[in-house]
Every structure is written in C-alpha cells, then in structure tokens.
Write a structure and sequence with these properties.
- The chain has helices at 3-16, 25-38, 95-111, 133-139, 142-146, 199-217, 255-276, 297-308, 327-333, 356-365, 381-396; strands at 41-46, 50-57, 62-68, 118-125, 151-161, 164-166, 170-173, 175-184, 188-189, 224-233, 239-240, 243-252, 283-290, 293-295, 313-315, 337-345.
- Strand 1 (41-46) and strand 2 (50-57) form a beta hairpin.
- The two termini are 35 Å apart.
- By secondary structure, it is an alpha/beta fold.
- The protein binds zinc ion (2 copies).
Length: 400
C-alpha cells in the first residue's frame, strides 16, 4: 500500500465513524496511535478528549499546528459509499480531512528531521463546533506542559476548488455571540388581553426592532449579522402565556462593532419590554461567545510562499462569516495565527469559468460546510492539505 492509500484509508475510516463534540474517543485513539508510531511524545485527554503530539528536533522555536476532530449532529446525504455509519452524526464540516492531513504531515515531518529544527507540537482539538474545545485545552495546561508556540498554523476545508488554498490576512472568521432572551409578561385568558401583558406581541415587536440594529447602528462599510434563529411562546390558542423566549445569533469581525451591536440588542430588548409594560426586565443570557479569528498580516505574508510551493493556487477568499476557535490558541500564546482554507470541491465544477463573479457564484451554489451533502473530494484535497501543513511548518521551523 502506498502512503497516499494508507492516509486515504484513515480518512475513509474517520468519515464512516464520526463523533460529536467532546465524544471524540475513537478518533483520539486513532490519532494517538498514529502519532506514537511516527515517534511523537503523546498526551491524551487534554481538555477532555484532545490529543497533543510533541516532537523535539534540535534547537529552535516551538510551532503549534492544529486540527479539530469533532463531527456534527447532521444526517449525511452525500450518497457516498463511505458515508457515516452513525445515525444522525456526520463529518459535515470536514474535520476528518483536517485530522487526516495533520497526521500525514506529522508523520512526514518526523521522517524528514534533516529538513527542520525546533519543537513541533501537533494539537488535535475536541469540540470546535461548540466553540469551547480550544479553551478547554488551554485551561488544561497545554502550554504549561508543552511550551508556548511562536505561531499557530492550521486549515479548514471549504467548497473552493481542490488544488487551491485560500488565505486572508486580517479578520478571517467572524466573532460569534449567541444570546438566549426571556421576555416576561403577564399571562391570562386569550379573550381578555386587557388583563395581561402579552409576551407574544412583545416578542414580535422585539424581532422587528432587532432588524434595525444592522440597518441603523452599523456603518455600511462594517460587517454584522443579527439573526433571531429561535422563538418560543405559548401552549394553546386561547392562553396568553406568561413569557416568551428567543435565541439570537450575532456575527461581527471588529471588536468595536461587536460591542456596539451587543449594546444595541440589549437596549432594544429592554426597551420593548418597557414599552409593553412588562412586570420585570427581560433576562439576557450570553450562552456562546467566540472572538473573531484574526490572521496576522505579517505572518500570512511570510507563510504564503510556503503554501505556494506545494503547487496550489493561493487565493484571497475574503473573510468568512462563520466562526472558528483556533484563534484561542494564538491569543493565549500571544503569538500570530495563520489559518487558511483548503480547497475540497471537485475542480470539474469550475471548468470553463472565466470571471471572479462566476467563481463566487459557483462556490455559493455548492453544498457548504454543515450541509448534509457536504462532500470534499479525496484527491487532491488530502495531498495538498498535507503538503501545505508540512511546508508551513518547515517555514516556521527553519534548519539553521
Ligand atoms: Zn463547523
Ligand atoms: Zn469546522
């Protein structure tokens, strides 16, 4: 069996056996075994299910390369013969690609010690989809035990053509804030609204009011999204319920915009309650929070030639409105982050396209990450992803 076939087998196996956030036990076992075989010192159970591999190869800096391991509660609908065998769980975000590429890269770097010098720390993170896995590994003493890196490297598979890499300097993935809001009214009979304070009407006007946040408080040149993704109230047609609950998802790239949007949301929620004569203030619970992933411009410029050296076309895909917690590793270390997109879409989809707008329209039309139909092609996604990690790591771990 060739090396490429061996890593393809590992990829197919991971794809067939996806595991949800903080339940990546089988995956972690495969990772630990593979790293040990390559000669890494391995620690498991870091931040619950995370795995760390350390390989010291002479003098030099410590470089952290990260892959996330968790799958999603999605029923796979790709029709692939290697589809998920776990009911209702699938690698719909492609983290199995990340794990396979980093294992292959770690093995290649371990086999070529004459090409680099320093300490390579490979981090296999749990629970990226919850936005808490990276922080869990930091809180568990990752840097106390394995050293603080000078750079954090990693990649995310995306529906751009396989054979391309996407690198965007500056804010590259959005900050995420999720709010659960409970509006309190006074319940009563549906025939006697004058004896109640109706939280359904309060919720309705709040939803409409929140639409003004982006339209009226964010500069047209700045980016923000405010989505009410959930709204629950009432049990029966003739009962006015005592409360209503909603969940709001907020995405921003800049800290100042983030603060402004969060303040506006709070003001509108409280204001609508006051206007309705609510008996008490709404409760606003901030149940998810992830900072924007900011790619360091100088570190990106320095890494770009290494990415180009693997034969991939390196494009600037612009910022992505999704969120990523890889930046937590860089913030905790006070070091730069370089995180790129790995093309995973069948290049045949892009044949004959001549303009950037045609390209963008094609990308938007393909199943995206988290879709039940998200299906990266194996070749050349795995080989380019592996080569990109190897080249970037060698750049940051130069042989003097
Ligand atoms: Zn995801
Ligand atoms: Zn992901």
């Amino acid at each position: 069996m060739t090396l490429a076939e061996q890593w393809t087998d590992i990829y197919l196996d991971l794809h067939r056996h996806p595991e949800l956030s903080f339940e990546e036990h089988r995956t972690a076992g495969i990772v630990a075994e593979s790293l040990q075989a390559a000669g890494f010192e391995v620690e498991t159970g870091v931040g619950r299910t995370g795995v760390v591999g350390v390989l010291t190869n002479g003098e030099g800096p410590t470089v952290l390369v990260r892959a996330d391991m968790d799958a999603l509660p999605v029923t796979e609908a790709t029709g692939l013969d290697y589809s998920s065998t776990v009911e209702g769980v699938a690698h719909a975000c492609g983290h199995d690609v990340h794990v396979t590429c980093l294992l292959a890269a770690a093995t290649e770097l371990a086999a070529t010690p004459e090409t680099w010098s320093g300490t390579l720390v490979v981090v296999f993170q749990p629970a990226e989809e919850l936005g808490t896995g990276a922080q869990a590994m930091i809180d568990d003493g990752l840097y106390e035990r394995h050293g603080t890196p000078v750079v954090v490297l990693g990649q995310h598979v995306a529906p751009i053509p396989a054979g391309t890499l996407g690198l965007h300097a500056g804010p590259a993935f959005a900050a995420l804030d999720s709010l659960a809001i409970t509006l309190h009214g006074v319940g009563g009979h549906g025939s006697s609204p004058h004896t109640t304070v109706d939280p359904v009407v309060m919720a309705a006007s709040t939803v409409i009011g929140l639409q003004t946040v982006v339209a009226r408080t964010v500069a047209p040149s700045d980016f923000a999204v405010v989505t009410v993704g959930r709204l629950d109230a009432g049990t029966k047609v003739n009962i006015i319920p005592p409360s209503a609950r909603m969940e709001v998802s907020i995405r921003t790239y800049q800290e100042s915009v983030r603060t402004r949007v969060l303040e506006a949301v709070e003001r509108i929620v409280k204001g609508q309650a006051v206007a309705a004569g609510a008996p008490r203030d709404p409760e606003i619970e901030h149940f998810e929070s992830m900072g924007a992933l900011v790619n360091d411009p100088a570190a990106c410029a320095a890494t770009r030639p290494a990415l180009e050296s693997v034969g991939a076309l390196v494009i600037d895909p612009g910022p992505v409105p999704g969120s990523e917690d890889v930046g937590v590793f860089a913030s905790a270390a006070g070091c730069p982050c370089v995180y790129w997109l790995l093309g995973g879409a069948d290049p045949a989809h892009f044949d004959g396209l001549t303009s950037v707008s045609e390209f963008a329209a094609k990308v938007a039309s393909l199943p995206s990450n988290h879709s039940p139909e998200f299906a990266p092609v194996i070749d050349p996604t795995l080989s380019i992803g592996t080569a990109a990690l190897v080249a970037a790591a060698r750049h940051w771990l130069p042989k003097s």
